[in-house]
């Protein structure tokens, strides 16, 4: 047999080489990029809007049984490692296990709030679709404050992920926005605003409003645009002041530049998800 022909035949019979554990520079950048990680999540379909999106943009709901009445309640399973336990009167209080398959709904406070409205006001989708989530004809309980409940869980997750940044020292504190330009490898920027002690004894100017939704800020080293998150607007002042203590910020430090490193990926993705959840809803935490 001709050697060239033999080589061509054996080319497709030889075992595949094992994938290299060494990442290319591009793979390293994608691994450390929260937006790339969010967009790479599996595609799922919103059961209400029928839109197929990366699951990062959706909230996964499941059903859990009330430990006492055995009534079935919808719960956002993907926001906690264990099934969340609603604390309001009349809702499940003890641990409960998810039942059956799960369903996905667009992670939007406006849409989740719309689901809670009276049936006559739900014009954009069939309410029966939600009760068919488990493939059974049954009436499941939907919390009347579900959009607020999901918001609290998201805020708690963002707080925990941001607190991890403080533990890993994956940030640089800045007194002014101009100080950010000297920082290297900036992934995103956190605006803390004034601490609680300075909020009432100093004059308020328009800069205290902080960055708007989906704001960005120009950074150097390398030159790019970084996401600029307004923590008091997303988390409220109580959680923001708790993070200020975790970061051990001086009173004059209102801005933190988070480094574009692997430990910051989860915080970046959850901040983006929280901002998207609140966008256009007007459901921002109280400032007090």
Q: State the helicity in percent bands.
A: 25-40%
Pattern of helices and strands:
HHHEEEEEHHHEEHEEHEH
Compute the number of strand runs: 10
Low-pLDDT windows of residues:
82-95, 120-127, 201-207
| Structural class category | alpha+beta
> Mean pLDDT, nearest integer?
80
Distance between the termini: 84 Å
Strand content: 15-25%
Q: What count of helical segments does DSSP give?
A: 9
Q: Main β-sheet: number of strands, strand sense, barrel status?
A: 5 strands, mixed
Strand order of the largest sheet: 6-10-7-9-8
Radius of gyration: 23 Å
Shape: flat
Considering the chains and any ligands shown, give keywords for the structure:
5-stranded mixed β-sheet; 10 strands; 288 residues
Record the SSE blueprint.
Blueprint: H1 3-11, H2 25-31, H3 34-39, E1 43-45, E2 52-54, E3 58-65, E4 72-76, E5 98-106, H4 109-116, H5 128-131, H6 146-168, E6 171-174, E7 186-191, H7 196-199, E8 215-219, E9 224-230, H8 231-247, E10 255-259, H9 265-278
Parallel strand pairs: 7-9
Antiparallel strand pairs: 1-2, 3-4, 3-5, 6-10, 7-10, 8-9
Helix pairs in contact: 4-6, 6-8, 6-9
């Amino acid at each position: 047999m001709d050697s060239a022909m033999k080589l061509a035949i054996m080319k497709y019979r030889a075992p595949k080489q094992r994938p290299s554990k060494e990442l290319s520079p591009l793979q390293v950048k994608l691994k450390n990029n929260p937006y790339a990680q969010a967009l790479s999540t599996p595609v799922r379909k919103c059961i209400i809007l029928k839109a197929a999106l990366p699951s990062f943009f959706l909230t996964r709901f499941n059903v859990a049984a009330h430990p006492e009445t055995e009534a079935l309640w919808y719960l956002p399973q993907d926001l906690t490692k264990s099934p969340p336990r609603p604390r309001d009167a009349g809702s499940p209080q003890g641990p409960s296990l998810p039942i059956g398959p799960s369903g996905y709904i667009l992670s939007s406070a406006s849409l989740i709030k719309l689901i809670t409205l009276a049936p006559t006001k739900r014009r954009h989708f069939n309410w029966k679709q939600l009760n068919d989530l488990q493939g059974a004809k049954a009436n499941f309980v939907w919390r009347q404050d579900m959009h607020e409940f999901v918001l609290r869980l998201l805020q708690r997750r963002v707080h925990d992920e941001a607190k991890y940044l403080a533990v890993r020292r994956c940030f640089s504190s800045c007194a002014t926005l101009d100080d950010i330009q000297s920082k290297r490898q900036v992934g995103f920027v956190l605006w803390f605003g004034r601490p609680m002690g300075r909020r009432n004894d100093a004059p308020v100017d328009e800069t205290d409003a902080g960055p708007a939704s989906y704001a960005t800020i120009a950074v150097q080293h390398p030159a790019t645009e970084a996401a600029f998150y307004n923590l008091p607007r997303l988390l409220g002042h109580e959680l923001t002041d708790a993070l200020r203590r975790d970061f051990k910020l001086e009173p004059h430090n209102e801005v933190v530049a988070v480094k574009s490193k692997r430990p910051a990926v989860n915080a970046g993705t959850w901040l983006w998800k929280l901002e998207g959840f609140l966008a256009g809803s007007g459901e921002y935490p109280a400032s007090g």
